Amino acid sequence: MEWHQIHGWFEWRTGQQEAVSHFSEGSCFVEIGNFLGRSLCSLAELVKQSGKQINILGIDTCRGSGPEGPKVKDYHREAVEEGEGTFAGLLHKNIIKCGFANDITLIVSDSVNASLLFANQSLDWVHLDGRHDYEGLIADIKAYIPKIKPGGWLSGDDYHEEKWPEVIRAVSDALPRAHPWSKDQWRLIVQ
Ligand SMILES: C[S@@+](CC[C@H](N)C(=O)[O-])C[C@H]1O[C@@H](n2cnc3c(N)ncnc32)[C@H](O)[C@@H]1O
Question: What's the domain count of the chain?
Answer without folding.
Answer: 1
